[in-house]
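Students often ask what a holo structure prediction actually looks like on paper. The answer is less mysterious than it sounds. You provide the chain, you provide the ligand, and the output is a string of discrete structure tokens encoding the 3D arrangement of the protein together with pyridoxal-5'-phosphate.
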Amino acid sequence: MLSTTAVPGISDLPPMQSDSLLALIALADADPRPEKIDVGVGVYRDGQGRTPILRAVKEAERRLWEQQETKSYLGSVGDKRFAELLRPILLGDHAGDERIAGVQTPGGCGALFLGFKLVRSANPDARLFVGTPTWPNHVPLARGAGLELVEYPYYDREAGEIRFDEMLASLGEARRGDVVLLHGCCHNPTGADLTDAQWDEVTRLVAERGLLPFIDIAYQGLGRGLDEDARGLRGMLAACDEVLIAQSCDKNFGVYRDRVGAFYLKAKRREASATAMAHVLQLAREAWSMPPDHGAAAVRIVLEDEGLRADWLAELDSMRERIARVREQLAAADERLAFIADQYGMFSMLPLSRDQVLHLRERHAVYMADSGRINVLGMADEAVDRFVAAVVETLNDPATHG
Ligand code: PLP
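The corresponding structure tokens follow.
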């Protein structure tokens, strides 16, 4: 006889807490006020508030459409040429190092996933040191891979600066083999990047203590420049025998939804690197079998063609210049926002309480994450003055100081 005992099924799952940034987008979308400003979004916007497809990418897609003759499988490595063409851009002088192997992934997230899983396979006792705050997705990705997380202090929101001494003290507690997650450039959510001298100090500590650096670089070229933004990462490659890198092209090529990224690892020897990469490919097979082709193929076409590459570099320059310009504009508006000019990339964290964030939402139709994180490019040019006025009014209003 069949048992009638209730067995939990997929219909009995508990509700999930909604993702706060997605919930924020829904709230902003539902706001009927025409002057609303949404600085919660995580994508680049131009002066008109649009996220356009880059000219070079559009042209590459046209060529792909005309010339691609098959959509047959590419296998777990994806587009090999794509990962090769990225090497000099990312690795600089280390591009020829045969101990470094790379593979195409579905975005930077796919690369982070592979790296965390690989660490777990190689050393189940390794803990992951993550800065506070960090990009919120780091936490579920690392926990999902089964890693134990240890937080290190990174940023003082009130002072608008990096808590460098505390960061070093915390990393000084890490055990040999523990992993240190660092943002290569354009720190998300704070915009506060380590200076070159701070990178050198962290690199020394990581190398001396036998820690494994994992560099997440999702905004190369949007901070100070392609080479400058990779300086910290390349310093780690020079100093350490083992390094992990999660790279994303989704921002610097503007191909967000096409999911374009790569994972690189450096091992002690070339054969060890090949073996580790075989493990990575097995992990990829278990997760997504093979990465999506379209975006990586478009990036490959851009990088292979001298004219398209030059056009991409010019567009990247203009994105970076616009970011710096808007940062200057925000910083000049009020001395309490001056720190924004010294930061890089799309994000900054304003020294606002949760009540002040809510006040901005209700009174001024300005939408930002509860943490005070803003995308400095979330608004069109015409909205910048209004945004600043709303933030300054909120900072000045004693009723919002709760
Ligand atoms: N790492 C950081 C710090 C990010 O901000 C992002 C995206 O917002 C990513 C990685 C992953 O990017 P994607 O998976 O969209 O390529």
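The mean pLDDT is 95.
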